[in-house]
Amino acid sequence: MTTRRDLVAFVAANLVAFAVALVAVNQAWIADLDDVPRALIGRWLPYALALCVGLAIVIAVHLDARSAFLVRHFALYLAVPATLLLARLSQSISNGELGVVYVGLAGALALHALAGLWSALGRLSDRATVAASTTKAS
After folding, report:
1. Number of separate domains in the chain
2. Residue 138 — pLDDT band, cuts 50, 70, 90?
3. Are 71 and 6 in contact (CB under 8 A)?
4. In the predicted structure, residue 15 carries a pLDDT above the cut 60
5. Which residues of 114-123 are buried (b: 16+ CB within 10 A; e: fewer)?
6. How many CB atoms lie under 10 A from the CB of residue 82?
7. What gap in Å lies between CA 58 and CA 136, rounded to an integer?
């Protein structure tokens, strides 16, 4: 597939997945959670996913195997149902338990982005490498 076609398919799939995630995190039972878990699930999880999609697009533009990279990134959306399942099944989810899920997701996304940058490192200029790596850091 071409770069443009890969990216358009990725953005379209992410828009659908993001819409499903927004519906899922706005379910009525989310209101029964404490303030911190409710904010983490309802406000910060969608924001984190949107930020990571932007990062994936910035990195994918520079990859030869961008289709595989984008499919792996899209699979990280499975963190949303895992987080919601944990919150739903636990009687009272603690901030620490929810934090473990978030740290795991952040670690998986960071490793995935690092692997993408590493494979594209030979083709990137110093300026592009700095721009892509600071996008992740911010």
Report:
1. 1
2. very low
3. no
4. yes
5. eebbeebeee
6. 13
7. 10
By residue count, the chain amounts to: 138
Question: For the chain, how are helix, strand and coil distributed in percent, rounded to 5?
Answer: 85, 0, 15
Dihedral (Cα; 5, 72, 18, 42), 10-degree rounding:
-160
For the purposes of burial, counting CB atoms within 10 Å of the CB of 64, is it exposed (0-12), middle (13-18) or buried (19 or more)?
A: exposed
Q: Are 60 and 69 in contact (CB under 8 A)?
A: yes
* Residue at 133: amino acid letter: S
Q: Which domain holds residue 133?
A: 3-137
Q: What is the pLDDT of residues 25-48, one digit of tens each?
A: 777 776 677 777 777 777 777 787
